[in-house]
Design a protein that fits this description.
The protein has 395 residues and is mostly helical. It has helices spanning 3-19, 29-35, 41-69, 71-91, 95-112, 115-126, 133-161, 165-170, 175-180, 190-194, 199-215, 217-237, 240-246, 251-270, 272-279, 281-301, 305-308, 314-331, 338-367, 369-394. Helix content is 82%, strand content 0%. α16 (281-301) packs antiparallel against α20. The longest helix is centred in the C-terminal third of the chain and has 30 residues, at 338-367. The radius of gyration is 20 Å and the shape is globular.
């Protein structure tokens, strides 16, 4: 790749990141599954668990396909499935369509996961710019969050007109990443340059990548830390709408809250590198854990509209975690198996998520939303302390 092609890929990746997922559905996703697809909260958790199982099944094989056949091709395939998923979400009117929308999303996510991050990192590597990965990733993610923040404001009012409207309005924007994915330039790619695709070659590559991941203390640690933050954040996200109902928050104000939480995440993502440089890595890790565990406990203990505002705090972590984890992982993986390694990280996190989603769904059904939040917060702080102790041993 020449310098022009490198800069083109970086610019295309920014556009791709900006519009890669639906813009308007954050504040109303659970409500649409409840009211449009007629799924109970428990069924939503079960559905999400099944979706995660599918991601586990597809994640590593699609990652190895990206390493063998090229990251661009798998990104294109993934975007096609994600677009079909969004269409199904927009027109769902029964539980079957709700399930199908989630399954299509799982397939699309699996193809894209790891391949997009690998394409960016390998592009930067060809230009000797790997040191800019965290900054570019953070700013791209931040721009996405800021756009979603303003769309969330509109989403609440659109939903007040008709709950299906935010899903429909978001569809045209998803055409942009679908088109952009076909214009990426594939970076030079060590495995595909030396090997033709074979099933046995794919299996060998997967085995090699698993060996690399499990022999590395640093990679094992980042997988555990990613699982802690990612799983707890997702479980918490699925309590947002039920919690807002408990405290009597009108749906149009939910959009306002989502605006501010995305602006909060935008700020920390935009300045993720500067924040980590100032705090240092170990203090950043402690901060991310505390900003999830403590607000969860407080929300559960004091269920009021003011308690609902505490969802802003974990979004400080949400802004930092993506560039932090992406950069940390890429530094410890080779070019040959980068997408596979990233997919293994995601696969293991998803495996933990399956059991967590199922267990948390049962907990919410029996103990209620607020008590479940308190328990989740305590678990985050305990496991987070163990995770930090392990980090210090690696250092």
């Amino acid at each position: 790749m020449n310098q022009h092609q490198i800069q083109r890929n970086i610019w295309l990746y920014k556009v791709f990141s900006l519009f890669g997922e639906p813009l308007f559905w954050g504040p109303i996703l659970i409500l649409t599954l409840n009211d449009l697809a007629h799924m109970s909260l428990k069924e939503v958790y079960i559905c999400e668990s099944v979706v995660v199982v599918l991601i586990i099944v597809f994640e590593v094989p699609t990652g190895s396909i990206a390493d063998m056949l090229g990251r661009k091709k798998t990104i294109c395939i993934g975007q096609c499935f994600l677009f079909l998923s969004a269409l199904t979400f927009a027109f769902m009117h029964n539980p079957f369509m709700g399930w199908m929308a989630n399954i299509l999303w799982a397939i699309g996510f699996s193809f894209q996961s790891g391949a997009d991050s690998s394409l960016l990192y390998e592009t930067l590597k060809e230009g000797g710019m790997e040191h800019m990965n965290k900054q570019i990733k953070g700013r791209n993610f931040g721009s996405r969050l800021l756009l979603v923040a303003f769309c969330s404001l509109l989403s609440g009012y659109l939903a007040d007109i008709h709950l299906r409207l935010p899903l429909l309005v978001g569809i045209p924007f998803l055409i942009i990443p679908l088109i952009v994915s076909f214009f990426f330039i594939e970076p030079r790619h060590e495995y595909s340059a030396a090997h033709a695709y074979t099933m046995s070659g794919q299996i060998d590559l997967i085995k090699k990548a698993f060996g690399i991941v499990f022999r590395s203390k640093a990679l094992r640690w980042i997988i555990g830390f990613t699982a802690l933050i990612g799983v707890s954040s997702k479980l918490w996200f699925f309590t947002y709408n039920p919690y807002f109902k408990i405290v009597g928050l009108d749906v149009k104000y939910v959009g306002v809250i989502f605006f501010f939480l995305n602006v909060t995440a935008w700020f920390t993502s935009r300045y993720a590198k500067e924040i980590e440089d100032y705090l240092q890595e170990k203090n950043s890790i402690v901060l991310m854990i505390v900003l999830i565990g403590v607000p969860l406990i407080l929300m559960g203990m004091f269920p009021t509209w003011m308690g609902a505002c505490l969802v802003l705090l974990p979004n400080l972590t949400r802004g930092i975690i993506v560039p932090f984890v992406d950069d940390y992982t890429n530094k410890h993986l080779s070019s040959e198996s980068r997408s596979t390694g990233l997919s293994i990280r995601s696969c293991i996190t998803s495996t933990i998520q399956v059991f967590a989603m199922w267990g948390f769904g049962v907990l919410v059904e029996s103990a209620g939303v607020c008590t479940s939040q308190i328990i989740l917060g305590i678990v985050v702080l305990i496991v987070g302390a163990m995770c930090f102790a392990q980090y210090r041993n690696i250092k």
